Amino acid sequence: MLIPQKKVKAISFGLLSPDVIRKISVGSIITPDTYEEDGTPIDTGPMSLRLGTIDPTQKCKTCGNRVGQCPGHFGHIELAKPVIHVGFVKIIYQLLQATCCKCGRLLLPQKEIDKIRRLMKERPRIWAIIKSKVVTKVLKKAMKAMECPHCGEKQIKVRLERPTTFYERTKSGERRITPDIVRARLEKIPDEDYEVMGFNPKTSRPEWMVLTVLLVPPVTVRPSITLESGLRSEDDLTHKIVDIIRINERLKEQIDMGAPMAIIEELWDLLQYHVTTYFDNEVSGIPPARHRSGRVLRTLAQRLKGKEGRFRSSLSGKRVDFSARTVISPDPNLSINEVGVPIEIAKILTVPEKVTPWNIDELRELIIRGPYEYPGANYIVRPDGRRIDLRYVKDRKAVAETLTFGYIVERHVRNGDIALFNRQPSLHRMSIMAHKVKVLPYKTFRLNLCVCPPYNADFDGDEMNLHIPQSEEARAEAMTLMLVEQQILSPRYGGPIIGGTQDYILGAYLLSQKNTLLTKEEVQRLLFLADVADFPEPAILKPKRLWTGKQVISALLPKGLNYTLRASACRKCGECKKFECPYDAYVVVANGELVAGVIDKKSIGAGEPESLLHRIIKDFGINVGSWFLDHAFKVFLNYTFLHGFTMNLDDVLLPLEVLQEIQKRLREAEAKVWELIEKYKRGELEQMPGKTLEETLETLIHEVLSNARDNVGKMAANYLKASSQALMMARSGSRGSMLNLTQMAATVGQQTVRGERILRGYFERALPHFKKGDLGAAARGFVYSSFKRGLTPIEFFFHAMGGREGLVDTAVRTSQSGYMQRRLINALQDLHVEYDGTVRTADNRIVQLNYGEDGVDPSKSDHGKAVNIDKTIEKVLGVAALK
Amino acid sequence: MKTKKMSLEDLKKKLEEYSAELPKSVIARLEEKLSEIVDRLKVSDVEKIINEVIKQYREALIEPGEAVGTISAQSIGEPGTQMTLRTFHFAGVRELNVTLGLPRLIEILDAKRAPSTPLMRIELDEKTKYDKAKAEELARKIQHVTIENVTSSISIDFGQQIILLQLDEELMRDKRLTLDMVINALSKHKIGVIESVIERVEETSEGKKKKIIEITIAMPEGIEATKLVKLRQKILSIKLKGIKGLKRVVVKEVSKEGETYYYLEVEGSNLQGILNNLDELEGIDPTRIMTNNIHEIAAVLGIEAARTAIINEVMSVLREQGLDVDIRHVMLVADLMTMTGKVRQIGRHGISGEKASVLARAAFEVTTKHLLEASARGEEDPLAGVIENVVVGQLIPIGSGMVELRIKRGGE
User: Fold this and answer.
1) Predicted TM-score of the model (pTM)
2) Which of A66, A161, A851, B159 is at 20 to 30 A from A36, Cα to Cα?
């Protein structure tokens, strides 16, 4: 791919003068009809072949090119009477107010004008900065003037009636200023004064804002579509242009005939209406122009505006080739840097490869295999730019023979090619990462489970996109900057965003249990998966040679790793017993040996800064880190297979006595609630500061009930079977929380809507099953049952209410936070670090003198800290020095 | 072997030498850690450690061209999806509700004139902070009290052109107000003549005795009925004491390390008001007054303070939601918002609307307005930013697109 040598340096905006319009026009359009009876375009009509062609059988009459080559050409309409451009009404209004109606000068004393002009000429840089402020002041002051300081004329107030009519208030009443008078007045404004008002007379004269000639866009801008029935359907813009021509011609006729002023004015207004809606069909104050079917027309402004408009939809976002999309599914045997690509897709996506002496034989083979056989090729590009589509080549062998150096072969993607993988919504940079292609059978994209968190992907039907970079530069950049392993550390908090989830954590947790003992075969199986050759000495020799799970993990840890942390199994006891921890939650790694502790979410989980995984990446580098994610994690996962894991109803089963006790405690809580209500009714409740009595009661009831659920939950956790698999998942942090368990085993608890106990639907009660004004727990959405026991119909309904609120909340939140992020990105996207370490905006203004006050990249930091000093001291002095 | 030991002073001096090469935060942490083990350190060790730290610091430096703006925007925007819209969780008993989570974050970035729940936290000085009684007295002093707060009923007699005010004695006692003070305040305003003040004891429905004070205010002759209603409103809003805007003041207790101290939490915010009345408000620590109204901070304490306030507010919203976001991202946003000396909004009426590029503004919001204005004024788009170049279809001038290097083929 060629790197473009030419560059657009700047774009300057301006108005087209009538002269320029006539010059760029290929002809005047005067016929308000599109096609002749026989279907050929009318030469003076809006679909004229002079304006370019959209018909593949026709040649453009202006340039002689066919569809793809002819860019289209502009035409014009000579308006019988001038018409105001809606978009500039506001500016015209300001200009009329700020200039003299007689001499056209700016209504400011010459001295002041000279002063500003001097500043403009002598201090252009300062002028550029203060321009907008000076201009608003100038206009404000000039608009207030009652009398022209240049010719002494008394000024008459001008009034704008939206959208496009001007009036002036004279003594004899209001008089309309027709567009031709407006234009005449604007013409009188001298360039010097125009400049002072902040305009550039070289690119825009004010009178050009009143149109005398209308530019007609080429047909390529407004192509007509032929329906299946053979009927032609014209573009909205064409319809509008036809309307304008029709009225314009009629107006012309009437003027030539010397028709009375009233008729002319009526037609003139109609012309103004059509031109207005041609530019913008959403102008307030006039009805939008409609299609025959009643549909509102989509005219120029609508094409540009909004999310589906040209800017946001076609210019800020572009459609691309060399991309694919399909459903994703997991594959733990892939590396985190890989993506599984279906063969069918691999046969469509191509990589251009230049023919060289080193690859010519191989590429010939690919060409011979052709586009339909897997590793093959789809196109050949000759040095002159001609493309050969291999689908239509009869004798591919012969074509392969013609291959010489300098040709480019677009071959199928194959293993090791670089691809960009993306899942929407792309909320952060880790939503698009580079993977190495691994071509696989079946029809889904496959990815390692550790990369699910950055994409926020799961496999309930998610689809993802894949792009193949086509230039060497793009590939190099993707490889070095975007490869998954380069993105392990999130710039959001300086910790790993890629890491273990669900089964990985569970496997590690099970493997690192104190009582996990493995036979030789098992250890071999596990370590073989990780490609680890160093076989540890068995921990137990007799009666059988056995290895502990911790030994297996130690074999996977890099030598020299030292670390301690509290696992997520930690119960936060008052004083830590460290090595004597009854839950084995005190994790110690010394010189790469797992001495104590279980490995769980806190150690290898995704999004856990200062974890074991984070330490490995920080101390040993990305390569060791990604090795660990690829190999050690495979061991953890396979241990779950070895161990076996399931969850059943027994996991949330509590002994009968406990269940009775739970119900008893819930009834006690209920009684307490009644007590509070009684107290409230007697007026004995002490009001809390800043709350009404009712609010106080609600708060207290809330507290009682949520305490009750917590207590009951704790009890339930204590009485659950020690072997409860569900409990194990919650403890290790692999899935589910203690709250989930409480809700399943003991009680679901209070349901809320808008943070309050449920009260909606009926007058003073939630459901007709309760008395009006019932404040008790059951009537206001407390669910006594557990999910295991099942909810009563009323409880079920309350639960559904709470659940629905959650769903609504998520829907509302995504749109709100999406808009917030769009605004943030838009405001911040130009900020970058300069070579001098400062952060600057696009126009080179300094935002920060040193990025983040210390110049440290958060993704290279150690959880926000520039340098981990403890680790550095340890590195220099050795572990012993710190003890 | 020569093993020179290090003293604490030597260490400090040594670290001082490197102040140009390491940021203050790193030096401070280094000093803290090293002084713990200073008695075991050799001079050479310290040097080795410092050099290693410098090496690692340099490795952690941001690279030129990095699109730090986009990264910050993503780092703050992405967790937005995880935030709860409303905070349902009642953490214990909370006296005041505060806007938190996503709505508050949007509010800060919008640079709204006033927060939807203005709040102040006023710390007391060393002398008073342990004294609950004094704290409560201060709370009473600053709380804004109007006639409305001590009135049990107010009625207009249109026939006699009088307004009848019934004051609640209990409420007055609670606010430490005497009748004289109320009458004094009333007579200061042009609202009419106080005709009579009657005190009587009434029996409530529960059989309790209650003292009621009736004030009759005569209106000027021939006043219109509509004016009378307006006047009633004016009477109700007459200030009796306190500082305007401070609707409710709560004394809060903090127990830390065996010590219990008090501070004031205020609903409503008026930083200038408190600072203006410091003489009367002895016991308040003027250096430790916090408000969540960023514009107020900008006006009273200056733009640098507003910047810090934005950082603190955003960080506390994120922290409260349990979201881990590096402070550097928030600092960048705050710096951009305040760089012109005024607090600018993140959005159409602030930073995005003031961009130099026409195309960038058009691509964000109100597309046609910007295009029309640009063509009327004859503006020029310098194509210096990201979006403009995407629109045009060129490389963006940031990151790897910023580098201007080309290989010269077939050179010498």
Assistant:
1) 0.89
2) A66
